[in-house]
Design goal:
The chain is α/β, with parallel strands linked by helices and 307 residues long. It has one domain: Ribonuclease Z/Hydroxyacylglutathione hydrolase-like (Metallo-beta-lactamase, Chain A, 4-Layer Sandwich). It has 10 helices and 14 strands. An 8-stranded mixed sheet has the order 6-5-4-3-2-1-13-14, with helices on one face. Helix 3 crosses helix 5 and helix 5 packs parallel to helix 6. The N and C termini lie far apart (45 Å).
């Protein structure tokens, strides 16, 4: 190839970079696993799912909760699985990340908007360990989940504050179970398993549907509940997020998982304002869709499905 052709090709390549923009060029050159959500899931089918950072996926399941954690050692944890109609979406989402096995499944409490899609997950993946609180209900959704677990040959590990869940080999990862702290509650939400995940300097808090009573128990038992990012309890209901707890968590971001125009009027405006007053930036799945937090243990950033 002569010199003029080389120059022409170089100019064309540089023009392409300038038109695409730096972010798009970096994405292209680095083989970023995350695409542009064109199909509603946004993941590269050809990606090799070896993880070198901690990723927390706050999956948009409408009026419900679902979070997927990818640990730096390659292990995974699913926290809740939304309502029943979200099961197929969750399964497809996880499979597009390249996984056919989930190391830890955590059902924070047996309400249908948290465990509805879990039967589908149990039937679709290899499962390591399943954690649930000692709380029962008579709903069909709960009974079907128990049946799926039995048919899979799995056993449930009853979970309370202090239960060790994560058994990975990364010394910079710490997973703490902060609740439930009592054996009996009148309100099923207060049986919620509450998790705090720390990777290096970065702290993430997952509240399930824990209400004010559980929050007070956590504050009474633990000296430090601060977090950089909190998945707000009970979809932003005014039964959770008491003033003292919000002040002690003191997050940079407060993530609300909920459905658009839901019948419960979540999130309640005073709760949104309470987290704002604490200095938190508000992120809502009904507005931003699925969100993904990436951290190297020192810094973190959050990508959102919708602008």
């Amino acid at each position: 190839m002569n010199k003029n052709k080389w120059i022409t090709l170089l100019i064309s390549f540089l023009m392409c970079i300038s038109f695409c923009g730096c972010d798009e060029f970096d994405r292209f050159m680095n083989g970023d696993r995350y695409d542009h959500y064109d199909d509603g899931y946004g993941y590269n089918d050809n990606y090799n799912s070896q993880v070198t950072e901690l990723n927390s996926h706050y999956i948009d399941v409408g009026q419900g909760d679902c979070e997927l954690i990818e640990f730096p050692d390659g292990q995974t944890m699913l926290i809740d699985a939304g309502p029943a109609e979200s099961g197929d979406k969750i399964v497809k989402y996880i499979k597009r990340l390249g996984y056919d096995y989930i190391d830890y499944v955590v059902a924070t409490h047996p309400h249908s908007d948290h465990i509805g899609g879990m039967k589908k997950v149990i039937n679709s993946f290899g499962i390591g360990e399943i954690y649930m609180p000692r709380a029962e209900t008579t709903t069909k959704t709960y009974e079907e989940l128990l049946k799926a677990i039995r048919q899979k040959g799995e056993k449930i590990k009853t979970t309370t504050a202090g239960t060790e869940i994560y058994k990975g080999n990364d010394p910079y990862v710490k997973v703490e179970t902060l609740a439930p702290n009592s054996s009996q509650y009148e309100e099923l939400n207060n049986y919620s398993i509450v998790l705090k995940i720390t990777y290096g300097k970065v702290r993430l808090l997952y509240m399930g549907d824990a209400e004010v009573l559980s929050e007070q128990e956590i504050l009474n038992k633990y000296d430090d509940v601060s977090a950089d990012v909190v998945k707000v309890g009970h979809h932003g209901s005014n039964t959770s997020s008491c003033q003292e707890f919000v002040r002690e968590v003191d997050p940079q971001y407060a993530i609300f998982s909920l459905g658009k125009d839901n019948d419960y009027h979540h999130p309640h405006s005073q709760i949104v304002q309470r987290w704002k007053n604490a200095g938190a930036e508000i992120l809502r799945t009904d507005q931003y869709g699925t969100m993904i937090l990436h951290t190297d243990g020192d810094q973190f950033d959050i990508d959102t499905e919708k602008e």
